[in-house]
Amino acid sequence: MPLPQALPFPLSHRFLLLLCFSSTLAAAARGMPSTMVSAAPPNLFPGPSPDALALLAFKSTVGDPSGALASWNDSLPFCSWRGVACGRRHRQRVVALGLRGLGLAGPVPPPLANLTFLRHLHLGENTFRGRIPPELGRLFRLQYLNLSLNSITGEIPTNLSHCTNLRTLSLRSNEIEGKIPGWVGSLPQLSILALTYNRLTGPIPPSLANLSTSLRGLGLFGNDLVGNIPVELGRMANLQLLDVGFNRLSGRVPPSVYNLSSLTVLIVAANQLSGTLPPDIGQALPRLQSLLFYKNLFHGPIPSSFPNATELRQLELGENQFGGAIPPNLGGLPHLSVLVLQRNRLEGGEVDDWAFLTSLTNCSHLRVLQLDVNNIRGTLPTSVANMSTELEVLSMGFNNLSGRIPPGIGNLISLTALDAEVCQLSGDIPETVGSLRALRKLVLDGNNLSGQIPTALGNLTLLTDLLLNFNELRGSIPTSFEHLSALQLLDLSYNQLSGNIPREVVGLSSLSLYLNLSHNSLSGSLPAEVGSLKNLVELDVSENRLSGEIPSSVGECQVLQYLHMQGNLFQGTIPPSLNSRALMVMDLSRNNLSGPIPKFLAGMQLQFLNLSFNSFQGQVPSEGVFRNLSSISIAGNRGLCGGDPVLKLPDCPVLQTPRSRRRHMPKALVTVVVAVPALCVALITLCYLFGKRCWKHHPSHKSSPPAASPFDHYEKVSYGELLKATDGFSPENVLGVGSFGSVYKGVLGPEEKAVAVKVLDLGRHGASKSFTAECQALRNVRHRNLAKVLTSCSGIDFKGDDFKAMVFEFMENGSLEEWLHPGTTGSSD
After folding, report:
1. Integer Cα distance of 96 and 29 in angstroms
2. Distance CA 460, CA 720 (A)
3. With respect to CATH, is domain 658-686+709-824 assigned 3.30.200.20?
4. Backbone angles phi, psi at 639, to 5 degrees
5. Which residues bind ATP (predicted)?
6. Residue 527 DSSP one-character state
7. pLDDT tens digit string along 747-787?
8. 585-587 and 177-179: which strand pairing?
């Protein structure tokens, strides 16, 4: 079960960051012309303006796939071109160029440096690439430079240090490398420095403290900075935003930083910082609106002085080592919107550790409350139902939380996520949960919840994740789940659910992560609608009482990687449709499946295959996953043979060449197939010559009756009976091959008598004569070592072709050939 994650950075403070920056930008823009709307002045120069030439050079250099600069032509004065603003005093000089978000591409053009009166340059949210042109250092009047949200690389050029009038330098969300240059601290008017989301390395330069009176916002979030937070930053008396989160900073936050009373946003999240929070932090930072310290190594108690920072909206201390009790006076923060305390060591020591929840009912704007993965004990208070109706996230899992889920939980109509997994909650799931129409995640697994799954859960049409596994839920799966059209993940495993799997559930085509119904008492067949789960990654219906055949529609789950069906009563064969290259794990063990193991399994990308304890038979493939003993299990299938030698299975009976078959045929059949025909031909020849001689001298030769068939006194057998006796003349029943046909082992008649059936290949020249000759010979020859002839068949098969066969008594040991030629089967000694 996945642990809950910390609140993402953009949700945490992007709005506050923008708010702080925008207010500073407004101050920085004072005294500038009304950009992008100034009237076009008359052309006072007899020739082309140098600024117009610079703009045309810019246009010729950049890529403009959307035609955003189409107005840059001679039909309009250049001061009326899109994004261009000229000055009021110098009416033919460009003072502002704002081309934000126009889809422009290519390197930043150096001709921009020819706009020497430029004070405001905004090229953000395009696809500019390459390095920042060092020529921009010639723009000594520049006050605002924004190249954010591009693909700019390289280091920050030293020449920008000549832009001593810069008030805002925003290079955020690029791929800029190298260190933060120390000369930035020599830009005396710099108010905003935004370098977030780059690839900057090295320490934070202490020289930034030289901007002690001008700097309002310092954004270094999301780089690869190392070392300590400089103590000198505590001298920035006017600093309102300090964001050094998501770097590799270590050590402690300097006490001087906690004394920056002007701070409204302080972010040090996701570093390796340690230490404790000062007990008087609320008094020391009275203007604080957002404090993000999550994902560090802070320890100690959570100070109870936070309510003194009455403007505090966002307090995120998760994923640290804070201990002790949660201050019960946090409810005194009237503007609190986000409280994240998850993954700490918080506990109380009192019987009712959850009493603080009652105080939080005073926070009428609370939207996010994350308390999961702590050691908070006690009963969930019913006052949770009185929390803010603006509450969107309530996460309490992995605590020693007991009691019932209050029915009043349905009052929290804005909830999008309710998480109370791995606690000790008991009782029924309230029907009122079905009133939370905005709910997207309902995670209640790992509790002691009982009763039936409420049918009202079918009202949660926005639900994407539903986890009720590892409880004691009974009854059937509600068919109302068919309305959960946004559901991506459903886990009802390890309960006591019974009845059939509703086709409405397996027909939810939105399921894409996994469907887990394992370890219940579900019965019936797996509905064919399972084929609707075309985007499902994992299907687990193991350890139930499901029966019938595996539906071939499972093969329509095109991206299925994990298939678990073990421990059921499935029967039949593995459907050919399961031949999916996406499947990595397939477990069909402990069922009643039969037939051969399909060869296509060897051609799949399987990493694990379990077919054990079924009734599979026949040859095991020896390629693919079957080569790795640790990746397969086929134990408990008594009819298997062959495969890789490492499996140590018996050899399979295989079809052999005529010569090798004669070497390995039973001795009795060697006699019948090889020796008898030769002997018969010799005897028939002698009999013919002797009979002809006698016939010439016998007085009654003129009135001899017609010769009877050699098998007139035997019971006749039909082609159909021989077909059935030999299992359709199966190759597995072949005992040997002679010159004029093949010999099959069979079981004939209701007595199930073991016989050897010699089928003549009438397509071979001389086969019919051989049949007649053998019949004549066997009619007259008698010997105790000769296979006893039982009957014959002479007719047509089901295709209308001639068919001739002889049926012998099957002899396990002994033959005429062995009697006549004892040296051929014995030792050569």
Report:
1. 11
2. 64
3. yes
4. -95, 15
5. 758
6. P
7. 887 677 888 888 877 766 555 556 655 655 555 544 444 45
8. unpaired
Annotated ligand binding at 758? The verdict is: yes
Q: Which residues are CB-neighbours of 217 under 8 A, at least 6 positions away?
A: 17, 20, 21, 24, 191, 192, 193, 194, 239, 240, 241
What element of type H or E holds 523?
Answer: strand 521-524
For residue 808, give the H/E element and its range: strand 802-809
| H/E run at residue 15 | helix 9-28
The rounded distance, in Å, linking the Cα atoms of 507 and 531 is 8
Tokens linked to 523: 């019965």
Where does 103-238 show beta strands of DSSP type E?
105-107, 120-122, 127-130, 144-146, 151-152, 168-170, 177-179, 192-194, 199-202, 217-219, 224-227
3-state secondary structure of 161: helix
Q: Give the list of residues 6+ apart from residue 824 with CB closer than 8 angstroms, or none.
A: 817, 818
**Is there a contact between 522 and 545 (Cβ–Cβ < 8 Å)?**
yes
Sequential DSSP letters for 729-771: T-GGGEEEE-SSEEEEEEEETTTTEEEEEEEE-TTSTTHHHHH
Cα separation, 373 vs 362, in Å, equals 24
The answer to whether the CB of 242 falls within 8 A of the CB of 269 is no
- For residues 588 and 568, what is the distance between their CA atoms, to the nearest angstrom? 9
Instruction: Give the global pTM.
Output: 0.75
Query: What's the CATH code, domain 49-175?
Result: 3.80.10.10
Q: Please spell the DSSP secondary structure of 183-216, one letter per residue.
A: GGGG-TT--EEE--SSEEEEPPPGGGGGGTTT--
Phi, then psi, of 465 in degrees rounded to 5 = -125, 125
**Rg of the chain (C-alpha set):** 44
- List pLDDT tens digits, range 92-143: 999 999 999 999 999 999 999 999 999 999 999 999 999 999 999 999 999 9
How buried is 274 (Cβ within 10 angstroms: 0-12 exposed, 13-18 middle, 19+ buried)?
A: middle
Amino acid 509 reads S
Distance, in Å, from the CA atom of 695 to the CA atom of 698, rounded to the nearest integer, reads 5
Interatomic CA distance for residues 321 and 274, integer angstroms: 9
Checking DSSP bridges between strand 177-179 and strand 424-427, what pairing results, if any? unpaired
CATH architecture of 476-647: Alpha-Beta Horseshoe (3.80)
Residue 820 pLDDT level (bands cut at 50, 70, 90): very low
**How big is the CA angle at 345 (ends 344 and 350), to the nearest 5 degrees?**
135
* Both structure tokens of 380: 């969930």
Instruction: List helix spans (H) across 279-374.
Output: 281-284, 356-360
Q: Would you list the domain boundaries of the chain?
A: 49-175, 476-647, 658-686+709-824
Distance CA 498, CA 572 (A): 24
DSSP string, 782-803: --TTSPPEEEEEEEE-TTS-EE
**How many of the other CB atoms lie within 10 Å of CB of 10?**
9
> Across-strand partners of 266?
242, 291
8-state DSSP, 673: I
